[in-house]
Queue: 2 jobs
Job 1
Amino acid sequence: MVFSSVYFLFLYLPAVLLIYYITPLSWRNGVLLLFNLLFYGWGEPRYILIMFASIAIDYTHGILVTRCKRRGNDRGARLAVASSVFFNLALLFFFKYWDFLARSLSAAGVHIMPVLNIRLPIGISFYTFQTMSYTIDVYRGDARCQRNIITFGTFVTLFPQLIAGPIIKYKDLDRQLEKRTHSPERFAAGVQIFVVGLAKKVLLANNLGMLWDAYKAMPAGQLTTAGAWLGIWAFSLQLYFDFSGYSDMATGLGRMLGFEFSPNFRYPYTARSITQFWRQWHISLGSWFREYLYIPLGGSRVGRGRLFLNLLVVWAATGIWHGASWNFLLWGLYFAALLIAEKFFLLTWLERLPRPLQHLYTLFFVLVSWAIFAVEDFSHMGVYLAALFGAAKGGLADGTVWYYLRSYLPMLAVGCTAALPLGAQAWNRLKQTPRLVLLPVLLLAGLVLSTAYLVDATYNPFLYFRF
Amino acid sequence: MSKKYCIFISALFCAFLTVFLAAGAITPDRAFSPLENRTLEQLPSPTVKTVLNGSFMSSFEAYVTDQFPGRDIWVDMKARTEKAMGKQENNGVYFCKGDALIARFDAPDSTQLTANLNYVNQFAAKADIPVYFSLIPSAADVWADRLPAGAPNASQTAVLQQAAALPDVRWYDTRAALTAHSGEDIYYRTDHHWTSLGAYYGYTALMGALGKTPVSLSQYTKTTRSADFYGTLFSSSGVRWIAPDAIDTYVPEDGITVTSFTYDSKGTPVEEPRALYDTSYLSVKDKYSMFLGGNQSLGVVRTPHTDKPKLLIIRDSYADSLVPFLTPHFSEIHLLDLRYSKLSISGYIQEQGIDQALVLYSVPNFVSDRNLVWIAR
């Protein structure tokens, strides 16, 4: 199930909220667990088994680690952590990377792995990372061992952030799982964040996505340089609103159910370096890799050569985490190169530049990175990158660019404004009364328009005539 | 923000969600959507099997969205929002000058196009009778000057050139006849078909190819059959703010009989009487089906001119409004729709004593059609 759908909004969500709130406090985790499983199993019922496996593996490993630690058996505890990491990565590897590897190998002439055509279980990259962090944190003493399997199951399957993050560590949710406060203030705050997220996804991301689709699919002969930049501009906004909108919806839903998640995006397009960009973009992923990969590798308190290697490993992993395809690996390495350069010398140079140039530098490299990210086919990626840098078969610009620019200019303007903190700043500067009046109006407008777009997306005239 | 205000905001949100849930539960489910021209999903009942394989869930999703209260109003609102945001198209339909809606023409799949052209040529090469061939460009070509400036629109003339080069057909040019009158109402503004007037110009082109003199339009009186026709582009665009089209006819239907040959559910052949103009369709959404009563696999139009030749048209729905103009020149006009009819065409030509054949499609239909393989069999 996804949040931006008619049946989620008008059926599943009201049902969850109603049943959740009429259930006594001590039963709420159990109710939530059932709804989580319904949410997950909706699209692919068989994959609920992965959920059960995930819960069982990490629940038992958590207990195992605690037992070994209590007996002073550090080796045993480490072994248990290693085993948990192994199982989680095995799940992730099998479901996400098996076919990718099998296809790549057979393309290279090595036929040792059969292609299984596995359907990717949604959210597997997110929840395997979450559960992995649990056992590690129990071992490190950062998290308590959870002995109630229903509470633990609720954490693993928590529907607001199950399929697209933010990646929440058990230690951050531990207390909230046991006891959380429900109040109208928290619920109303959740409503606001959720509606903002919904509007970002349905009104901005989907719309700008159509502009990107037009350019992504454009044959090489028609692609112009101006068009390639327009397309990648649209994609940069689409991806941001899609992802951050989903995170907002998760945060909002979490609050409605009494949970508090930390923010996943902080206006990343305002960053003045790539280093800063990654501190503001998909924060929960960055911090996960930092805590469970980069720092264990020695972090930055190592020699230059080792630091170089550490960054390379972390960013290759970050890249391939985004999808089982070579372009994502390349995308990760692209950022590795930039971040290494920034760490070794570029950042000090950058700081001497005027601010607008720092922004320009960041946006330029981020936009180019999206072309690597979004175009999976390497030969077409080459064509697209060449077009960005002036070598477009269609020339610099054509009538189509103007058509699309005129059609999407208001949308792009709204998108750029919404990607900056301007809206939030203006809102905070408003006096109490206009805010109280405006809020319900904006909420309703957001809900009504989003509904119109969601319903229209399912509008499917059977065009008899297509004849 | 006070506690009371927060309760208000929370209640507002919950009310919005539940209002539609309740409205959906109260309002009776619709079986058919005239605007979308399709049957709507009904409430599925779950079985162990359908739940486990997920098919219950997908039908249930389709049910919820299909039966969503005020569905058509939401679609209208989305189209208006798009227009207000500066968009010049919605769901693949351009908002054009002169209150016209024009479907975008995308670059055709060249393999499919070449295959289709080859099928037509094979058919012509094998046939013992002359085979005439033409493709009707859509409004996106003839009315290209009405499209929004710079709007992406693939070339239809490239398709026509490729078709004109077929060696064994008698190609004739419909496009030139239409472009000469592009200032007139030759296409519907809300539908993808040509109007009777457009069909008349198409008819003059065909007459030129056949070496016959077309009946002058001034010899006919125009009859407006309907003044509130909203066609397929109206449906798919979601645009609800433009004026309806008029459906005109020119040719009187005196002495003309139409018979549709089809099969019932048991597979036994059935003959069904039809009419050149079936006015019962004027009271429903699908008004274009007034011409010959809409889709049929095989239709035979018989005229009082029994001394004239017999024509076979392998065609799409554009031919339905062309046929009235052909009635003075033929004793019988046989209409074959390859989507529904898989009969052996060469056998049929012999059996029926057909004198001439015509393959006539609109460009968008021709390039995407997957049934032309049956023409060559």
Job 2
Amino acid sequence: MQSRMLRVNPGDPRRKRQIILLLSAILIPTAVLITFAIRLSRQDAELAEKRVADERRDALDQLRRELSARLEAIKLRELSRLSGESFPATAPTGDFPVLFVAALVQNRLVLPWNTPPRPETPSSQVAQYQKQGEEREFLGDDFSGAYAAYDQAHVAGRNPADQCAATLSKARVLVKADIKPEAAALYLSMLDECGSVQDADGMSFGLYAAERLISLDLNVKPARQYIINRVRSLRWLPPVQTYLMRSLLQDATDPDAKGASDVLNSEIHDVEQILALANDLNRLGRIDFPFHASPGKSVWLAYGDEPWFVTMTSTASFAPPVIMAISSRKVSPPGVTFLAGKTEKSAPLGEGFVDLEVEWPAGRFVPATSVPRALYAGGIGLILGVTFLAGYLLLRDVSREMEVAEMRSHFVASVSHELKTSLTAIRMFAETLAMGRVADEQTRSEYLQTDVSESERLSRLVDNVLDFSRIERGKKIYRMQRVFLPDIVRAAAKAMQYPLTQHGFALTVSIEDQCPSVLSIVADADALEQAVLNLLANAVKYSGDARDIDLRLDHSDSEAIIQVIDRGIGIAPEDQHRIFEKFYRVRSSHSERVPGTGLGLTLATHIVKAHGGSLKVASEPGRGSTFSIILPLNLPEAKA
Amino acid sequence: MSTVLVIEDDAAILRGLADNLLHEGYEVLTATTGEAGYDLQKTRKPDLIILDLMLPRMSGLELCRKLRGEGVQTPVLMLTARSEESDRVIGLDLGADDYVTKPFSLRELMARVRALFAAFMRLPNCRTSCALAMWRWISGATLCGVAAGWWK
């Protein structure tokens, strides 16, 4: 008789409470947690970045100190080496880091290859022979005459330059006269004799001879070898010679020539850089030249690509200033790149160095957080998981609690309603009888029978409620005695007989006539009967339009089964496990409302379990339900 | 002879009520569901309805609201197991004329049935009686006003 009035609207307050709970138990802690975690990890990242910046600064400081000390040492050693010698002087080749030391004369850089001074002009006699030879050679095509004139010039020549020039001319005439072996022999002799002799342009006569040998395809090999040796042994040759040597070695393929070519290329690079520096001397003005500075306070200018450290110094007090250049390639520590200009990744080296920028190798300063980010994420994930799990459990428990509370309030309402209904009937019939309104005997007996039946219903109800409260308090006591199971089933059937027939039900009781004595078990007869009655009462309530109920007692060797079978509305699968919960009542799909307290099955389950048995349900919506009480036979004594 | 429609789902109570009303001399119609009761009201036009609140499918309150919504003026006596004041107020607001809580005294119920009949015999049409009361009140007030003005 659960009515619309009784049904508490399961909507708003509960939902609201759930939402508040969800917020306070899950969302807010989660949000706080995430905020904290983000802040923490951000702080950590900032710290790491700061640490990296510190590290970078420290490394820079250290690099500056080391470089400074190293350059200073090199400078002092070079100066002391040079103090005895005259300027300009070139450093030994090889791994020595000093590229050149050049004097600064009248604000002009004395280039390292400016020596020796221009050769003296040839004597008039030599010039005359030379001129004679040229006339014969170019105007008269008189090669033998020309050769003789050049030979005279050679003999008359008083300096190596004149002699080498005459020899070169002689060889040229021989080539023109197609006497090549003789010419080649002359050129070869020149390689040895005129190697260090230069003409007015600063070009070596030896190189002239080598060039002729290579271009005329006479004795190419010794000529090339001569160039390679020259490259290896000499440094700071005048640029004309360097360029010529490079072009002469261009077609060579052997490794020696390649190596010499590379040396030449780098030398040309240096040469060009020196020339650029010489034209750009005002940049040196940026070096605050410390004439009287104590050693160790030099200022170094970075210059060029693959920069040089250029500084201005002097060999002694009051000596003219010199420019010293040191190759960065030879002094830079491994992994560090020096640059003479700013790039995106570079940092200025700072104090004592002008224009010098440092590029660290990639990956040198990686911000390493103290706690790995993955650990953070894992921790947060774990905590979140736990929070969500806890929140979910809490929410589930609370909502179940609230459901139980709601069901409990339904229960109270249903119980009072059931009580009042039975009382109303009893009182009404009693009053009717008391007023003497019933004349015929049959009606009177019917009234009385109804009163008895209603009273029984009432006491069943009260029993159920009291038993339930005992079970809730853990005070339910079963009085176990040896009883005969068929008797209990028959008693239950009999108790329900009148109300069943009144409602038009047909109860079919099937019990074997000759029940074996194994069905005599130790049990609480009243309790078992109550369980069966509860099942029967449910069968009546949920029969819908069906009017057939079966009550069966079967047994096997080890257990007895009491079945109550109806053909009523059945139970949906999702409800089948919940119907045994206290107060739980199926919300029927068709708005058929069935009276009841939601205790019957709870009590039946408890009773059956107390007897060591189990209560099972098999049901199909629309086809009816079968409840089975399964009791073990040969049960040991005493069970409470 | 007056006809009473009893709508009650508990078979025992229904039978007791029917027997007693018959004994009092009324013609009795019975129904165990709201729908059946509604149909009987439509077809038999009873003079009084005794209505249980807690009925399967359509509850007594719904039935009452429906009947009043359709302009049915038949007096309705509600029976219910609930006795809180708010429930009674809801019942009366929905158009019930009287309210009896279970378990009730049989004599009292019969007396209330008689009283309802008597009241509705005296006032066959509520609307005219209301208009009359209104007219009396307005004319009385006007007279009072005139008298007060004259006195001043």
